[in-house]
Design brief:
Blueprint (H helix, E strand, L loop, with lengths): L3 E4 L2 E3 L5 E7 L9 E6 L6 E6 L5 E3 L7 E6 L4 E6 L8 E7 L9 E5 L2
Parallel strand pairs: 2-10
Antiparallel strand pairs: 1-3, 3-8, 4-5, 4-9, 5-6, 7-8, 9-10
Amino acid sequence: QVQLVESGGGLVQPGGSLKLSCAASGSIFSGNAIGWYRQAPGKQRELVAFITSGGGRNYADSVKGRFTISRDNVKNTMYLQMNSLKPEDTAVYYCKFVTFGSWGQGTQVTVSS
């Protein structure tokens, strides 16, 4: 069973940057699409971005031009570089394979002055 562990969250001021990491155990990482999701208080979980096994990227409109998703198949790790952060980006961020898997603990991102 593949386990995903998110890290890199924290408190940042509006306009700041953070880089999230998602480390995977197991050998199936490279062959599957994987994504970042987030859930803000009182809201449904939403897809932020995903990256295919071939490196194709897709972003939610709300983060286009500000967030960049990437993956390192040697390190079995996915990243989310978040720039120009806004208060509305505040949420718990999760990573998960797009078509299977379960939710982990997530990492909290708080954008506030």
